[in-house]
Each structure stands twice: as C-alpha cells, then as structure tokens.
Design goal:
Blueprint (H helix, E strand, L loop, with lengths): L2 H12 L2 E5 L10 H10 L5 E5 L5 H7 L6 E6 L2 H14 L4 E7 L15 E5 L2 H18 L2 E7 L13 H9 L13 H11 L32 H21 L6 E5 L5 E6 L11 E6 L1 E3 L3 H6 L7 E6 L10 H10 L9 E7 L7 H12 L6 E4 L19 H11 L3 E3 L6 H4 L6 H28 L4 H13 L3 H17 L4 H8 L8 E6 L10 H9 L4 E6 L17 H9 L3 E6 L4 H13 L4 E6 L9 H13 L6 E3 L2 H4 L5 E3 L2 H14 L2 H4 L17 H18 L7 E6 L4 H15 L4 E5 L5 H6 L2 E7 L11 H13 L8 E8 L15 H12 L3 E2 L4 E4 L6 H15 L17 H6 L8 H6 L8 H7 L4 E5 L4 H6 L6 E6 L6 E2 L1 H14 L4 E3 L5 E6 L1 H13 L16 E2 L6 H18 L5 H6 L28 E4 L13 E7 L5 E8 L18 E6 L1 H18 L10 H8 L1 H12 L19 E4 L5 E5 L5 E2 ...
Parallel strand pairs: 1-2, 1-3, 3-4, 4-6, 5-6, 8-9, 8-11, 11-12, 12-13, 14-15, 15-16, 16-18, 17-18, 21-22, 21-23, 23-24, 24-25, 24-26, 32-33, 33-34, 44-45, 45-46
Antiparallel strand pairs: 5-10, 7-9, 17-19, 19-20, 27-28, 28-31, 29-42, 30-31, 30-39, 34-35, 35-36, 37-38, 38-43, 40-41, 42-43, 46-47, 47-48
Helix pairs in contact: 1-2, 1-5, 3-4, 5-8, 14-15, 14-17, 15-16, 26-30, 28-29, 35-36, 35-42, 37-39, 39-41, 40-41, 42-43, 45-46
This protein binds flavin mononucleotide and iron/sulfur cluster.
C-alpha cells in the first residue's frame, strides 16, 4: 500500500467532511481512487467535496468547519498552498487535518508551518498511516488544525500495516482516549512503549533508548534546563498525549524525533525530509524529525548530547526562497541557549535526492565541516538549483470549442488577457484575474492616451492634410474593428515618413493601440478557476469594457449539493443584479447560434460582459457525445437556462431579457420555483406603493435606483442648498420612520434628498457624498441593525487603517437606543453604541460634523421622538434652511389603518403582486393585507445576511395559517394538510398555540395552490391572522364527549359569526369572480372598512382544565355545567392579552376579568358586542396600545362592560362559581362517555416532522389513513387522536407504538413546556425558541431529576420575542428573547394560568439560567408545601412578588434583592 492510499483511507474513515483538491489537468485525481476503494468496504460516508485545481480550498474548508472533523487532501503545489496560507489562520482553531502529499521537495508545504499549531511529517508509508491517525485524533480532540505532510511513496515500494476500520473508529471516537493535554498515561504502557520504541535504528546503541522517559512516546529526553514557551509546551503535551494514544492503538512508536547512529556522537545530522543513509560512521548520529511544530528548544537540545561539536541540519527544500531554512533556525536558536563552551557549530544543508547519496559523499561533507569552525551551507544529494521554470498550464481540449469560436469571430482583434501563453514571460500569476484586469486597464488607459495624442497632433497643425484626414477618420472609426485597424496601418506608414516631432513620436509610441480590440478574460476550471469565484466581482465592479467568459464544466448529473457554492450559473444572477453588465448563459452543445449571438453582443456592449458557458465534462477522455447528453439534461431540466440580458436595450425601450431555451421556457416556472431565483431572472417592475418600499428585500433595487434618483432630485431642486443624503439602519422600523420623516421635512424645505439604508452605500460612494445624515438604531447587544452592518464594517476597518479617507464628508449622526434595554451596570456601554461609534469613526476618517451627535432614548418622556426633536433643528441650521417656513403639511406617515382603508376590503394589489415574477415577495402594504387572509410573509433569517452579502433578495417564503375553530379536523383533512406541507411548504407543519395548523416555507408561486388545496377539504385560512377575530380555540376534553361536542359547536358558531364577509378572499385565492361585473359591492357588517384596531382572540375553557389559557385572551368563555352534566352557559372574561414591547412600560400583559354569565345562545352575540366595543373604542393611532386590554384599562372595566351591555340591550347575569386546577394537557389514553377512546400524545412544541427515531409525520399519516374518528389539536401544541372505536384500538395502538408516538415517559417539566416558532422563519424573533427550548429543558430536567422532581409539572415557556405567542406571561417560569442567546427571565405565574408572572432578571444567558434555577429547584424540592406549585412557591419563598394586575406588572419587578 502506498502512503497516499494509507492516508486517504484514514482521512476517509476519520472525517465527517472530506475536501479533496484536484491536481492540475491532465493528471488524474490521486486521492479519488483510494476514496472509492475504501467506500466500498466501509460503512462510513463522509461528505466528499472536490475542489478544482486553482479553486480556493480555504473557502470550502471554512464552510465545512461545522464538522467534528474535516480532512483536506491534496498534492503539494504552490498555487493550492498559496491560497491556503492566506486563510489558514481563520481555520487554525477548527478540527481540520490537511494531508499534503509531497514528491521530493518540502519548500511549498513548509510555508504552512507558521499558520497552524501542528505540523507533522511522514517519510514512509507506515509513518504516514500512523501520523494520519495521530493527526486526526489531535485535530478532533483539540479542535485545531494539523498539517500532515507526507512523502508520496509508490505502491509496493513501501508497506504499511493498517489498523482495521473498527479499531480506527474505536480509536478516534472513544471518548476515554481523548487527548487532554496532560500526561495521564499509565506506566504499564509507558514501559511497553520504551521497550519497543526506545530506538528504531538498531545499528548502534543510542543515547536514550533505555531511559525511563516520562512520556514514553518520545525518543528524546528534555534533560536540559531550558525554559520552553508556555503555549508551545501545552501544544506539545497535547501532542505527546495523542501520540501515546496512537501508540496504544497501533503498537508502534510515534515520536517527534527518531535517533539512529552512534550513541556518543560528535556530529549529529538533523534531517527534515526523506533520506535513508546507509552509512555507519563512527561518531555520527541522525535525528529524523517528524514533528516540526510545536518544536521545543528543550527537546532539540535533548537530542544533542554534550559530546556533539557539530550539528548539520539537512532540509529537503530545494526551492526555498528565504535565506534561512525553518528547522535550521529552530536548531540554531535552541543551541544559543547552551553556554558557549558546550555550544556546537550548526551548519545548514539542502537535501537533494537522497537515494543517490553515497557514503563517500557523506564523508566528504563531514571532512568539510571538520575543517571549519564557522557555520557552512552544504548540499547533499543532487538538487535542481534555482527555480523550476514556469510551466504553461494544460488547456483541456474540450475548452477549445469556445476559444476557437472567439478566434474565428474576432481574429486579430481577439486579446485574451489571461492567456496561459503569457506565463513563460510573466510568471504563474499571468492567468489570475487580478493580473488580467490590470492588463486590460493598462491597455485601455494607453488607448485613451493615444486618442489624446492624436487629437493634440490634429490640433497642432504640424501635419500634412493627408495625415490629417487619416487621423480624423480614425478618431471617428476608432471603435470599428476593421477600419480602425486599416486606418492605423496607413497612419503608421505615413507617420514613419513624417517629420519626427514630439507629437508624432508620441503617437508612434502608442501605435499598437490603433486597432479596436476585443478583450476577453477566460475563467476555466482547469487553469483559471478563481475568476469564477472571487475574481469576478472585481471584474464587474471595474466597469471596464471587458468580456468575461466563464466555463462551467461541472456535469449536471454530478452537480454538487455538498458544495452548493460552486453553482456558477448563480454568477449570472449576481451579475444581473449589479446593473450595467451584459450577461448571457450559453451552452455550445445546445445552441451554437446562441453562443455566437451572445459573444457578438458582449463584444459590442460598452462595459463589462459576463458569459457563462456550459461545457460539462469530467475528464479529457469524455467523448463529445457525453458532453452533448449532459448539456441536454442540464438545459432541459432548467439547471442551465439559456438567456441573454442586455441592459443597453433598456435605453431604447426594449426588453433587456431574452430567454433562449425553448425547453426551459416551458419548464421555467418549475425551475424558478425550485431555485427560488425567479426574482432575479426577469426584469423588475416598479411596485405600486413605492412610498412604502424600503424594507430589506428592496435593498438590491434601491442600490440601482439611488443614482438615478440623485440626479433627478438635482434637476428638481432650484435652491442652492446642498443635497442631503439620509442613510438609516433599522431593525424594527423606528429609525426607518424617523429617517423618512427627516427626508419629508428636508424636501419640504427644498432640499434635494436621497434616502436609503446604510448598506446600499459603499465606502467608496460615501467618499463622493457631501452632506450625510446617519440615523442608526441599536440592535443585539450594542450592535448595528442588519441593514447597516456592511457599511459599519467597512467604516470600522477603514478607521483602523486610514485617517482621512472621508475628508470631504460633512456628517451628522442620530443614534437611537434604549438606555434600559440592557439594565445591568456592566452593560451600560451597549446604550446607543452604534451611533456613538459611528460618530467617532467618521471623525477619525477626517469627516466634519455638521451637527452634534444626537441620542434618542426609548426611555425618554416622548420615547425616541424626544432625542430626535432636539437633533433635527441643528441640521436645518447647518444646511442654511432653518429660516424656511414650511407651510405645506408634511405627508402623513402611512399606517396600517391607511392600508386597510385603501385596500378595497382586503384586496390591495395582492392579485397583481402574485403575478409579479420579478420578486419572491409581495409589496409591503399587501404583506399587511395578506395577514387577513391567513398568510404572513417571512424570509429565512438563517441565510438573510449571506443573501444580502451576495446581492440577492432575502429567501422570501410565506407562512400559511389555517382557520380551524376548536382545533378539530378529520383524517381526510389531516392527509391534505400533510400533503400540502410536502408539495408546497417546507415538508413539516406545526400545531400552533391557537389550535390550528401552520405551514412555513411556501413560496409565492405556490401560495394559491396551497390555499386552494386547503379550501378543497372545507377548511380555510380567512382571518387566521390580521386585525380580526382569530381562530376561536376551545378545550379538548377527552373524557366528556358530549360536552366537548357542545363546546366545539359553540366555538364554530362564534367563529362563523365573527368571520369577515369580504369576497376578496374567494376572488383572489379561489378564482371566484364578483357577481355581475363588480356590481355587488363588498360590505363588512361587523368590521367596516377599517376592520379592528388589532387582533382579537377568543377562547372557550371547560373547567377544571384551563388548557386554552382563557385569561390570556381578549374574550373568554368558561363553560358552566349544570347538575345533569349539560352545558348551562359560560362565565365571560374580557381583557386578556400577552404582547409587550421590551422596554416600553406603556405595554404590559394582562389576564382577563370575569364580567358575568351568559347562556350558550347569547354567547356569539356577546362576542360580537365585545368586539364592536373594541372596534369603536380601541386605539387606532398606536398599534402597541390597541388591544382590548388597553381599551379596558383606559375606559375602566365597568364602563367597558356597560358599553357591551348597552349594545346587547340587556345585562349579563352574575358569574357562577367555577374553578380550574391545571393548564397542561391530559396525556395518554382516556375513554369518553360514549365509549370511544382518545389518545393525547406529546409533540414537542407542535412540530410535525420525521426525525430519526421519531417519525411522527409518517406515523400520523398512517393513522390518518385508517382512523375513523377525528384529530383534535390542543393549544399547548399537542394532539389527540380522538373518537377511536374500540374495534380499531389494536390497529391504532400498533401504529402509535411502531412510530414511537406513544412515548409519554418525559419529565413533568418537558410535558408542561411550550415554545413559539421564532427563528428561522418568524420575522420578529430576537432569539431562538422552538429550536432551543428542548435543549434547555434537557438541562433543567436534570436538575429536577436530581431533586426528585422528575414527574412534577412546572409550566415553563419560551418565546423568541415579547409578542408572547406561546403565552409566556402566565407560565411559572418563562424566557423571552431579547437578543441571540439572551433572554428576559420571568417567575411566579399561576400554575393554571390564573396569574401573570413578573420579570425576575432582565438579561440571562444559559449559564445564568442554570445557576439561578439549580438552587431554586433544590429549595423548592425541600421546602414546598403539599401540592404547592412552583410559581406559587417562588412568591412564598420571596424570589418574586405576585402580580395582581396587568398594570402592576412592572411593579416590584427584578427579583428578590431588588425589592427586598
Ligand atoms: C433586540 C433588540 C436589542 C436592542 N439592543 C439595544 C442595545 O444594545 N442598546 C441600546 O441602546 N438599545 C437597544 N435596543 C433598543 C433599540 O435600539 C430601540 O428600541 C430603537 O428605537 C429601535 O429602532 P429600530 O426599530 O429602528 O430598530 C434594542 C432593541 C431590540 C429590539
Ligand atoms: S413570540 Fe415573537 S418570536 Fe415567537 S412566534 Fe410570536 S412573534 Fe415570533
């Protein structure tokens, strides 16, 4: 087995991700075949990614760093190493092994040594095998990067005994064997180690083979009293420990140095490289070095006995370009630490081909050094001195198909600026995009100089008329390919004969630029891959008239999902987004004519052109037919659409986008849906409500439009006042509102104003600006908001390096923050940090402040407006417009109220928006309206930053919520819901806290079909969100079948009674047209055209279970049962509500108040009148103060009640006694009065999905196929399979058990926990919730278990923001997201939802949560009274005060020490 196969096998077995760097063509990928061989025998399946030669492996490795271990395999070559070295520092603390095969020179690979903690070298196949294991262990356990360089040995020339797969895996994954950096080895092994490995040479007794060395893995003793660097020592210890573990596994010595030769040497040769000296020379010993980093001076000295007078350091570095070689420097500096008398002389030497070193040669060297007392530079073995001449890269023959067309089309005009033929003269970098762009820029500059020189000459009058005519003609025809050339030739001939004046000489010197040239840069996977990755951006941004042809050779059938960033066809989208770039996507084996057309158009286009050319081939032997087939597949499948995008056509009013692939035309919708890139491919249409447009999704468009807007404004403004650019960064909309207000007010004062988010401005453009007002809020912990982060980053970086980059800029900053958001004294620096930082950095960069830094604080009397109002007048003053009287009223800001009123009963422009293929989103105003239709626009927040950085709009998708009163559905409906999730959504669906289904990830094109499917099974989504009555929820009481039926019917009737009557829903989603050509006008008898001020929630509870948390709803009905078990009526509650805004004390949660009793028949009318009272009295000016709870507190409960009764025309009866005892679900089996059976199953946080070992989605689908009863959803996000006839029990039980859905052996804590969705889909989330709560429960339930509370229910809830969807404010313990990883902690809620909890700590992270809860739960276990619940106990124990009403929520908040 060769060293390469041995290493490949270990890398394959050891890693989760394996990145293989392919060698230059035409070599075959060396590691590929060993990978294939091992994959046939192994059960391991690492994620295998190939990086083309010239590609940037570091970028791929950075993306793979989530793996427990990533291995990288490559042959050593300067290009790959150079790319790695730049980024390796970033990877140094990731578990990563770089296995680099070396042929006969370590020069390249040694460059990596300084950027990684560990550098191992193997010279034999066996050593390579063992060191590969060691490196993997070390990287995995220490979470660090390890370079393992090994000499590539031929198959059969060297043998290696391999460790079996089982042993490899045991060794690597055995936790006990983990290296911890300490010397925890046992003596037994130690003894064994030394016994075996004290010495490997065997020819001579040696210095320390017999010693009882402390760690047994090292052949060298560190006996010298030398102090090693602490960090290096720690790293070395970890190496020693890993080496010992490896030794135990392989039973072979693993040592940093191996000694052979004389035991009492006078000369010692350190060897870094592959050398096998057959020599046995008296007084000479050898040290083979296999650990180059960390290298301890004490170990080096330990290897040099005091008898030694000369040390030779031989290194196999034939092309080393620095003066001193690495090991030599280490040895010399170690030796310096010895006292002068015993210090040997250290000579350096380059080791050549060691197979040819004879004993005579060696003796000659020894003789030479014996005659010299000063250090010598030696050479041993044949070396090829000097650099290897640059090799012209091989251009694969298939690529000629494109380059030949270029040559044919443009003939002499063709200039390939990164042609490989330039390499011999210009060096290896000649094919790099930087070089090519530099060359193009230089040539264009020269041609401009030629034009100036010609014009000067024409004006000088020093030339004859014939020359004058020729030169004038050339000026006119300089861009004509044929005439510019022929005229140039004639001009040159004449000039050579003319009077050699300075002007003539200047033109002659530039004559080569007479012909118009077609300039091309080619990006090829084979020899200039980087153009397709990093280089392209520079080329596009350069704005130069250059054509870029990028070849994509990745066959369709091998498209790499493991490394999706290699999708070159996305480059087209990127380039199109950039604006003035010609873009074409072509495939020569699909349409030759289209290739020609695109090349010609690109040549004509005056600016950068990008042509993406498809040429799928794996290697050179693939026949043309193979390429043809792959191309057809890719084009037909829409993977590689053929198109051309010519922005110059826009000027003449033509459509710039042309789709050239017929097959794709038919499949376009499907393709674009799949890729979610619809928005990019077709030209964007201006949206209707432009004044509303400025959210994140519009950023890309804004960048494009900004310039045009600027000049338009310039035209409009006649005043002398300078233009004002307003840049804002806002997460929640406050800063955006303020910026818009400022912009309106500036325009009213006659200023030309440009308004955009900070990220639409580059640092470069900022330099051109004169007056800029920045408005930034504060997000996270003192961080800038998302849409300002790029510019903040750029300004910070510039401020760190340069001093007066922005010396022309006049600026003013308004920071917006909340001085109480992070209330702990140590966190005060977070207050308004971005604003303060920005102001200081701009000053550092030379900018001049034209108004003092303004700071607005949410805590001020008038909220953030207070600070703004102080700041604004300074701007007018500085801009000289303070005396201008503004007579016209400022345009009113557009609010949801306007949107509703103008929507024509919830229509807006939703229909048009659905048909607009230019974006995956809807217009912001329509986004507000679709909520009324049960649809919420969202985007994947996990990838939002990444997409913004790439210049593409966020990954928009919609959430759909079903209206399903009482949460009951049939098996058929279940199956449809399941199918919709698969076909239109993210493949999973969720049971919500409002007892309904919710889908995520539905893209715009699928919205309509999804909604039609829902309606087909008699469900709908109308009013599931929005300012209307939401889904009516009711208790799921399994044992009382009859009562449930009555209560459920009541829920349905209330829902039906309050549902909006608009026909817009049917018209838009179900294609039902209005009767008689819109003659019928919509009418909303209950809502009117403004609908409600805010959402309205109704719940119906059946005591003693308060599973619906009736007190958390705007309106509640508590069922009262008469003596016969019949439903007598309901106690009515009003004014519950959960939503709060962090830091805004005008907002608070509230529990509902009981206002009386009603009969079942009266119920729906009471619901109507409560809703109408709210409709007419709710606060429409401030959505944060609009819920019923605030209306009641403002009006007073009695007034509100009497208003309801006035509308009813009668008074409510007095409330009847009733009591709750829990709000958690009754899990498990129960049987109703009618003999039917029900099973309440636990579904963590309501997510219906298939996970390994918990295939609930499949299981429930199987149950739905045979179930004859119903499914009932609970508001705790769990599920009842209900109404099962006895005869079906075995079948259902069987399925429940088969899919492990009957497992209820969870802790009481888990069974009582609940979380909202939050990241990645909820746009309001500030922290994780659904994805994190289960992890937190794991940890808290351990504490409970330790204290004997495993089965005790403690209601613990979490939400990602203070909106409170999972009703956290009535939980016994709650966590509410403030920023990633940081939560508000609340305690003291009532066990059955009867009492609000209270803020206990304003910022906690996980360690703090656990530190708080541990002693608290311990005490609770010991001190609680019989039956006392945790929430009650925390109040009795003095941790928190009881909350008596919503208005009192903030009173005495903050926990024990703060109010004691
Ligand atoms: C998640 C989050 C984190 C915040 N962090 C801070 C902070 O660290 N410092 C601060 O002064 N204000 C902080 N604030 C307060 C906001 O900056 C303030 O409410 C501002 O008015 C919001 O403006 P916006 O809606 O434009 O984002 C934070 C607000 C939120 C929602
Ligand atoms: S509580 Fe906040 S984060 Fe959670 S789902 Fe509701 S709005 Fe989103």
């Amino acid at each position: 087995m060769s060293s390469l196969s041995a290493v490949a096998r270990i890398a394959y077995l050891a890693s989760e991700t394996l990145v293989d760097s392919l060698p230059p063509l035409p070599s075959n990928p060396e590691f590929a075949s060993p990978f294939t061989s091992v994959s046939q025998l192994s059960r391991r399946r690492p994620n295998l990614i190939s990086v083309p030669y010239g590609g940037d492996p570091a970028a791929t490795l950075l993306r793979a760093t989530g793996s427990a271990l990533t291995s990288f395999t490559t042959l050593s070559n300067s290009q790959t190493i150079a790319r790695l070295v730049l980024r390796l520092a970033e990877l140094a603390s990731s578990p990563l092994v770089l296995h680099i095969a070396v042929l006969n020179d370590l020069s390249d690979v040694l460059i990596l040594r300084t950027v990684v903690p560990y550098f191992l070298l193997s010279t034999t196949a066996q050593q390579a095998h063992d060191n590969a294991l060691l490196a993997s262990k070390l990287a995995r356990s220490q979470k660090t990067a390890v370079v393992h360089a090994f000499f590539s040995t031929k198959e059969g020339s060297d043998t290696a005994t391999e460790l079996s797969e089982e042993n490899v895996l045991n060794f690597l994954f055995d936790e006990k064997g983990l290296v911890n950096g300490s010397n925890d080895h046992t003596n037994g092994v130690n003894g064994h180690a030394n016994g075996v490995n004290g010495h490997s040479g065997g020819t001579n007794g040696h210095t320390n083979g017999v010693n009882g060395h402390t760690n047994g893995t090292n052949g060298i003793d560190s006996s010298e009293d030398v102090e090693d660097d602490g960090v290096a020592l720690q790293l070395f210890r970890a190496y020693e420990a890993a080496a010992l573990n490896t030794l135990k596994a392989v039973r072979r010595p693993i040592r940093p140095f191996t000694l052979t030769g004389s035991s009492e040497p006078t000369t010692i040769i350190f060897i870094l490289g592959k050398a096998s000296f057959e020599a046995s020379v008296e007084g000479l010993s050898f040290v083979d070095v296999s650990l180059l980093s960390p290298l301890l001076p004490s170990r080096i000295l330990g290897a040099i006995p005091s008898t030694v007078t000369s040390v030779i350091v031989l290194e196999q570095v034939q092309n080393w370009s620095l003066k001193w070689t690495p090991l030599y420097l280490e040895v010399v500096s170690a030796v310096q630490q010895r006292n002068h008398a015993t210090r040997p002389t250290v000579h350096s030497g380059v080791l050549g081909d060691s197979t040819q070193i004879t004993q005579v040669e060696l003796l000659k060297v020894l003789q030479k050094i014996s005659q010299s007392t000063s250090p010598l530079r030696l050479r041993l073995g044949s070396t090829n001195e000097g650099k290897v001449p640059f090799q012209v890269p091989h251009i694969p023959k298939h690529e000629l198909s494109y380059t030949k067309i270029l040559a044919h089309l443009f003939r002499e005009r063709l200039d390939i600026s990164n042609s490989p033929n330039l390499i011999p003269a210009q060096g290896e970098l000649a094919t790099s995009p930087e070089f090519a762009l530099g060359r193009v820029r230089g040539q264009i500059d020269e041609r401009t100089k030629l034009l100036t020189a010609v014009q000067d000459l024409l004006q000088s009058g020093n030339i004859n008329s014939e020359l004058h005519t020729l030169l004038s003609k050339w000026v006119l025809a300089k861009d004509d390919d044929i005439r510019s050339r022929s005229l140039g030739q004639q001009i040159t001939q004449k000039l050579e004969l003319a009077n050699p004046s300075v002007g003539v000489q200047r033109v002659l010197a530039l004559r080569s630029h007479f012909p118009s040239v077609s300039r091309w840069i080619i990006g090829s996977d084979a020899w200039s891959y980087d153009l397709g990755s990093s280089g392209l951006h520079h080329a596009i941004a350069s704005g130069l008239n250059v054509n870029i042809l990028i070849l994509d050779t990745l066959p369709y059938s091998q498209r790499n999902s493991a490394d999706p960033t290699r999708r070159k066809h996305d480059i087209g989208l990127y380039a199109m987004n950039h604006g003035d770039v010609y873009v074409a996507s072509v495939a020569i084996y699909s349409s030759y004519a289209q290739v020609l057309q695109a090349l010609i158009e690109a040549d004509k286009f005056n600016g950068p052109s990008v042509i993406l050319a498809y040429l799928p081939y794996e290697n050179e032997d693939v026949p043309a037919l193979g390429i043809l087939k792959e191309t057809k597949l890719a084009v037909d499948a829409g993977y590689w659409p053929l198109y051309r995008w010519d922005p110059s056509k826009e000027l003449s009013g033509e459509e710039p986008f042309t789709l050239d692939s017929d097959a794709v035309k038919n499949d376009l919708q499907a393709f674009l849906d799949r890729q979610n890139h619809l928005s990019q491919l077709v030209r964007s249409k201006p949206q209707l409500a432009t004044e509303l447009v400025s959210s994140l999704g519009e950023t890309v468009k804004e960048i494009r439009k900004k310039k045009a807007l600027h000049s338009y404004n310039d035209l409009l403004t006649n005043l002398d006042a300078p233009p004002l650019t307003i840049l804002y960064a806002s997460d929640g909309g406050n800063a955006e509102k303020v910026a818009k207000r400022l912009s309106n007010r500036a325009q009213a004062r006659g200023l030309s104003t440009t308004l955009s988010t900070m990220d639409t401005m580059s640092l470069e453009s900022l330099r051109q600006e004169e007056f800029v007002a920045f408005i930034t809020s504060t997000a996270g912990q003192g961080e800038p908001p998302q849409n300002g982060r790029q510019l903040f980053k750029a300004i910070n970086a510039a401020a760190a390096n340069e001093s007066d980059l922005l010396s022309n800029l006049r600026y003013a900053v308004l920071g917006m923050g909340d001085s109480h958001y992070w209330p702990r004294p140590e966190d005060t620096h977070y207050y308004n940090k971005p604003g303060k930082d920005l102001d200081a950095r701009l000053e550092k960069l030379g900018g001049t402040r034209f108004a003092a830094l303004g700071l607005s604080d949410d805590q001020d009397a008038d909220g953030y407006q207070t600070g703004y109002k102080v700041w604004e007048p300074q701007l007018w003053k500085a801009l000289g417009v303070d005396s201008i009287e503004v007579t016209e009223a400022e345009p009113e800001p557009i609010t949801n109220e306007h949107i509703k009123a103008a929507s024509n009963y919830l229509r807006g422009t939703i229909l048009e928006g659905l048909e607009d293929n230019s974006t995956g989103s809807l217009a912001p105003s329509d986004g507000q309206l679709t909520k009324f239709h049960g649809i919420y626009q969202q985007d994947d927040r996990d990838i939002r930053d990444e997409r913004l950085a790439q210049g593409v709009e966020p990954a928009f998708a919609f959430m759909i919520r079903v209206r399903m009163p009482g949460g009951v559905c049939t098996p058929e409906q279940w199956l449809t819901i399941n199918q919709i999730a698969d076909e239109h959504g993210s493949g999973t669906f969720k049971i919500t806290t409002r007892q309904t289904f919710q889908f995520h990830g539905v893209i715009k094109r699928h919205l309509k079909s999804a909604i039609q499917d829902i309606n087909r099974v008699l469900l709908d989504t109308l009013a599931a969100c929005g300012d209307v009555n939401r889904n009516v929820v009711c208790s799921s009481i399994p044992t009382m079948s009859k009562l449930h039926a009555q209560v459920y019917q009541f829920a349905v009737s209330v829902s039906q009674h309050l549902v909006p009557r608009t026909t817009a829903y049917h018209e838009i989603w179900l294609d039902k047209k209005l009767v008689a050509g819109e003659a019928l006008k919509d009418h909303e008898p209950l809502y009117g055209e403004f609908y409600l001020p805010r959402k309205f929630k109704v719940a119906i509870a059946v005591p003693p279970t308060n599973d619906v948390d009736v007190f958390a709803n705007d309106l509640g009905f508590i069922a009262i049962v008469d003596g016969n078990g019949e439903l007598a009526g309901f106690n009515v509650t009003v004014g519950g509500g959960m939503g709060v805004t962090h830091g805004d004390k005008k907002t608070y949660p509230r529990t509902g108040d009981i206002i009386g009793f009603c009969t079942p028949e009266q119920g729906k009318y009471i619901a109507e009148k409560v809703m109408l009272t709210q409709r007419d009295n709710g606060n429409r000016a401030d959505r944060k103060n609009a819920r019923v709870k605030y209306t009641i507190d403002r009006m007073g409960l009695d007034v509100f009640k009497s208003e309801v009764e006035k509308r009813l025309g009668y008074q409510l009866q007095p409330a009847k006694p009733s009591a709750f005892d829990r709000n958690v679900d009754d899990y498990g089996w129960s049987t109703g009065e009618d003999g039917r059976h029900h099973f309440t199953m636990f579904i963590e946080n309501g997510r219906i999905q298939d996970e390994s070992g918990k295939e609930f989605k499949s299981g429930l689908r199987e149950i739905a196929k045979i179930h004859k009863g119903a499914f009932r959803l609970t508001t705790n996000q769990h599920l009842l399979i209900s109404d099962i006839p006895t005869e079906d029990l075995p079948k259902i039980k069987n399925l429940l058990s088969k899919y492990k859905m009957d497992n209820l052996s969870h802790s009481g804590l888990r069974l009582s926990s609940s979380a909202c969705v939050a990241f990645p889909t909820c746009g309001l989330a500030m922290a994780e919730s659904e994805r994190y709560l289960p992890i937190l429960v794991d940890k808290v339930e351990k504490i409970c278990e330790e204290n004997g509370l495993r089965n005790d229910a403690i209601v613990m809830r979490m939400t990602g923001c203070p909106n409170g969807c999972a009703r956290p404010y009535v939980a016994e313990i709650a966590f509410i997201g403030k920023a990633p990883g940081v939560y508000l902690m609340l305690l003291g809620g009532g066990y059955y939802g009867q009492r609000l909890n209270k803020i206990y700590r304003e910022t906690v992270t996980e360690p703090e949560i656990l530190d708080i809860l541990k002693p608290m739960i311990e005490r609770y276990a010991l001190e609680r009274n019989d039956g006392e619940h945790f929430g009650d106990w925390t109040i009795r124990a003095g941790y928190i005060a009881a909350t008596t009403s919503g208005k009192e929520w903030y009173h005495r908040m903050g926990g024990e020490e703060q109010f004691a």
